[in-house]
Design brief:
By secondary structure, this protein is of the alpha/beta class. The chain has two domains: 1-108 and 190-272, 3-Layer(aba) Sandwich (Rossmann fold); 109-185, no CATH class. 39% of the residues lie in helices and 11% in strands. The chain has helices spanning 13-24, 54-66, 79-91, 109-116, 121-139, 144-148, 152-155, 161-172, 178-185, 250-262, and strands at 2-3, 31-32, 73-77, 99-103, 198-203, 224-229, 238-239, 247-248. The strands form two sheets. Strands 2-1-3-4-5-6 form a six-stranded parallel sheet, with helices on both faces. Strands 7-8 form a two-stranded antiparallel ribbon.
Amino acid sequence: MVLHGLEGSIGSPYAYGLLAAIHANGWRGVLMHFRGCSGRQNRLDRSYHSGDTGDIGFLVKTLRARFPGLPMAAVGFSLGGNALLKYLGESGTGAGLQAAAAVSVPYDLATGAERLNSGFSRVYQWHLLRRLRSKVAEKFRGRERQTLGMTASQLQQLTDFWKFDHAVTARLHGFSDVHDYYARSSSRQYLHAIRVPTLLIHARDDPFMTPAAIPAAAELADCVTLELSDQGGHVGFVSGSLPWRPRYWLEERIPAFLRTHIELAPGSEPRP
């Protein structure tokens, strides 16, 4: 089960690359589109956010019902990784998964929002917010003031994540303000409660976060392993000696970790 990042989809290179690796290992892969990310608008006024775990739990239960007895694992990237870790911490031993992996997670959402509003990282912020504002403008066209409490022109003035998450994300999803949203949705506070073997992959040079957002060993449950590299960027980790033959390390490391847990899980059956 693959969870994409902010404004990602099954067309995101990291997502379809991992799904191809999953297939190559003889497993079945499914990607969960967060609400509004599949190319179709969500029918409700609400959308998705970094701490939304309800749909993850629903999908786990659905797959468990369809494929009883088979081991299952989940992989989350960036926002999807934050939501996955929060789900694991909330669920404990009832998560319904044998293993999990999370890549380039914004463990502390407030720190991440501050980082994206400084230096070269503002380029990423500009790109993501342009897509988010466009999606919101299309969805609420003609009723911005009624639903969001602002005009269409005011929506376009939400030029950083602090402003957007305060005016849109928090309002649509029942948080009192942006500080409440970030505090309740950050996954860092849930890491100690995870009871599923979980691999965390992170790079110190991630442009979406500062090193201060990286959790310390004392914050992790015994079943959680943090692999920290000096380089890798945000959901990057590309290597190789030839520029036209890149090596996507995540597509090797993640299946290798999952294999040690899902193929040896109690009650698992040989796969075709």
